Amino acid sequence: GRVTRHLQRRLLPGTRLIASDVSESMLQQAKKQLHAATIQWQFIDAQNIGLPENSIDLVVCAFGYMFVENKEKAMAEAYRVLKPGGSLLFTTWSKLEENAASHTSMLLAAEYLGIPIPASSLVATSMHNEKELKMLLATAGFSAITTEKVQLFSVTSTAREAAAGFVKGGTLYKEIAQRFPEQIPSITLALENALAQKFGAAPMVAPISAIISRGWKK
């Protein structure tokens, strides 16, 4: 519900806001955080939005398109439901190397597994090429297309907290837990030390980077 919360604050009172996700559990979690009569919660697949043509003023997607199987279809669906003059606004992560803490975490996990970082772990940062993003939007019919790389810093209270989060939520670490469960404590400590050395122990401040893309429907 993070994006929905920000939109709710920004939009004019009475604006109809449809908050969607492809995961029912995520929708239920968001509903616990936000309570407003103007929010309509819907299960929606970006590849098949299921809303009438020319019915929406703005489509917003935060860090979601990377996980959509058919991105061309998803962009075409966004274009279809938008009214003339409406726009699509979405964010994607930049290269893994430009999101330094995640990069450090994946390198260490891959080293423990004795493999290169697999392609499946790079999906979240797969839409980092601005030229390709513009082409994707143009193919769907959008015009006045813009992309902007934003570089900020991620602040975590401690490197220990960040390491625990990566180990708990990282796909490579789940594989380590399945194959070498006894190594989880040692790799968590190794990751904490690596993060602290590079980005500080408390707080931990690491560079992050994302791309904001936008296209308009004539």
SSE blueprint and pairings:
Blueprint: H1 2-10, E1 17-21, H2 24-33, E2 39-43, E3 56-62, H3 71-81, E4 82-93, H4 100-113, H5 130-140, E5 143-156, H6 159-169, H7 171-179, H8 184-199, E6 204-216
Parallel strand pairs: 1-2, 3-4
Antiparallel strand pairs: 4-6, 5-6
Helix pairs in contact: 3-5, 4-7, 4-8, 6-7, 6-8
What does this structure look like?
By secondary structure, the protein is an alpha/beta fold. 42% of the residues lie in helices and 26% in strands. The chain has a four-stranded mixed β-sheet. Strand 3 (56-62), helix 3 and strand 4 form a beta-alpha-beta unit. Helix 4 runs parallel beside helix 7 (171-179) and helix 6 (159-169) crosses helix 8. It is globular. The mean pLDDT is 96.
